[in-house]
Design goal:
- It is a single chain.
- This protein has about 350 residues and is α/β, with parallel strands linked by helices.
- The protein has a single domain (about 5-360), classed as Aldolase class I (TIM Barrel).
- The chain is built from eleven helices and 13 strands.
- The strands form three sheets. It has an eight-stranded parallel β-barrel with strand order 3-4-6-9-10-11-12-13, surrounded by seven helices. It has a two-stranded antiparallel ribbon with strand order 1-2. A two-stranded parallel ribbon has the order 7-8.
- A hairpin with a 2-residue loop joins β1 and β2.
- The longest helix has 20 residues, at about 150-170.
- It is globular and about 60 Å long.
- It starts with 7 loop residues before the first strand and ends with a helix.
- The model has no long low-confidence stretch (mean pLDDT about 95).
- The chain binds flavin mononucleotide.
- Flavin mononucleotide binds near residues 22 and 24.
- Flavin mononucleotide (FMN) binds near residues 306 and 328.
Amino acid sequence: MSALFEPLKIKDITIRNRIGMGPMCQYSSHDGVATDWHMAHIGARAMGGTGLIIAEATAVTPDGRITPGCAGLWNDQQAEALAPINAFAKSCGAVIGVQIGHAGRKASSARPWDGGAHLADDAGGWPIVGPSGDAFDQDGTRLNKVPSAMSIDDIHAMTAHFVAAAERSLDAGYQLLEIHGAHGYLLHSFFTPLVNTRNDAYGGDFEGRSRFMRETVAAVREVWPENLPLAVRLSVTDWIDGGLTIEDNIQMATALKDLGVDMIDCSGGGATPAARASVGTRTADQVALAGELRAATGMITAGVGCITNAKQAENVITSGRADLAFMAREHLRDPHVAARMARELGVPPKNHLPLQLGFFVG
Ligand SMILES: Cc1cc2nc3c(=O)[nH]c(=O)nc-3n(C[C@H](O)[C@H](O)[C@H](O)COP(=O)(O)O)c2cc1C
């Protein structure tokens, strides 16, 4: 018996096991439209037995992309390109979700392999927005583009863009919707006091700083079907003095639960250059915080950060820290990581694989 290979039901959706692929930008879209790369990338992990696949941060507006190669759901053509990919993933037995978001003051960047720095407007970049006019990297040269502070009308319009992207996510066949509220991107940058210095209704105390996230989640919940799961990825700690703590995030998660959020995907960091990065070796201790949030709120949690082997993934579930073990980079190393972990835990992988594979090697 393996807890990792027990199914998980959230609303009307049953996930075949507790292994999730965390969202990962592929920097391979054209004008936000998915390409053959995405079919192969998502398809391979669905074939490999992964229970829940969350597609990369997908921008709700063109200026919400992290890089020019990032995915989008601001037009119907983008939803149409995603539909066959999602149909294929489902045909392999995976549940397919998407993370919708806006990169805020970290948008308009070069792809990581091109250095990842902000791109000037005349060099493939675009004007960026944030809670205030402060650049991410005020003392550095990487992400030092100055955002314009969003007006209240801008904030309301952005919430409407999230709603439109949620509707398109449904058209594209996604079964789970995740709102990106982490890593220093737009919604997190409003929530964290490290970035938000506003003194209007969208800044100041917890109520003010959390308002944009709460209003957006509430508006999205109106259009995202009640029987399908809604998740939010939070940076459950900013990992730095003066930033958000797990207690702040438990308060946020409690508010989101009341708004109909089913799951918190517990990531961390990314708010400022000094805060810990959201990818790296030091993300490992995030899983413990997923456990704290789960215990305090009773919500379904996904734990993520440096999970690479079967025993460790099994322990994420049996220890009660999370309901799903999300792996990002391990899925890049091995698209068949779920089948591999099943074998390692003595579970026949066949029930977690499409017949074309499972019949012969399960
Ligand atoms: C190539 C790559 C792209 C990523 N893109 C996203 C993203 O689109 N949205 C997000 O929330 N996190 C993103 N992340 C972070 C991962 O989802 C995950 O939280 C992080 O890599 C830690 O998990 P791991 O140790 O299993 O890789 C990305 C990570 C990598 C390596």
